[in-house]
Amino acid sequence: MQPSRSFIPGNRYLALLVASVSFVSFLPVSVQAQRAGDLDGSGAPPSSDLDNVEVLSPRITGGLFSIPAGKRLMTEAEGAYDSQNFDLAANKLQDARQIMNQLSNFYSTLTSSFLGVDRRVSESHRKKALETAQLRDKSTYQLALVYRAQNKPEKAIPLLIEIIRSQNPSRDLGKKSYQQLVELGFSDIPYPRTPGAKTSTSPETSSETPEQPK
């Protein structure tokens, strides 16, 4: 039986293979990189600046990804809290907290990206990163108060500790968060301590709106 005509004789196949390899080696580096999956054609690995940015929740839609939208959610949460609709208040604060956290991460990335390139752009985004971080911590504090009202200290305590780590214990919101830990019995030493102060602390009204750190 005669061999199939679809097969290429050995010598001719080898010549074609060598020619193909030679052609690829003469391609620009950018083209070779794209064939390897590097879409920007730079040959460099993708930037890792956004590796720690959380993925947007699919339920955050309708133009909510902005500072005014996050503030509006916080205001709506206060109204729900006053009406003792704690579940609704918690949901709105969770969304506000997530939005502000993501915005802060994005603004921080832009701040770093424009360092040494355009000072005004970098400074503008630095201020927005700080503002959104403060609003994130404020919404986190309010969410902890909602969990306290729901008698869920196991959810409130981690949030309060998160605020203290972010704000610093000596700042206003950090002090308030630590006070909440003392009232919950998680911490037993009041802070700040003053000479002659009693070891027990008077409960703070849960409906108090946290102040933005100065």
Explain this structure to me?
- The protein has 214 residues and is mainly α.
- 58% of the residues lie in helices and 0% in strands.
- It is built from seven helices and no strands.
- The protein has helices spanning 10-25, 29-35, 67-82, 86-113, 119-149, 153-167, 172-183.
Short structural summary:
This protein is an all-alpha fold and 214 residues long. It has helices at 10-25, 29-35, 67-82, 86-113, 119-149, 153-167, 172-183. Helix 3 packs antiparallel against helix 4 (86-113), helix 5 runs antiparallel to helix 6 (153-167) and helix 6 (153-167) runs antiparallel to helix 7.
Helix count equals: 7
Mean pLDDT: 73
**Rg value:** 28 Å
The amount of helix comes to: 55-70%
Strand content: under 5%
Shape: flat
Poorly predicted sequence stretches spanning 5 or more consecutive residues: 1-9, 13-50, 199-214
The overall strand count is 0
What's the order of the H and E elements?
A: HHHHHHH
Biggest sheet statistics: none
Class by helix and strand content? mainly alpha
Termini Cα gap: 91 Å
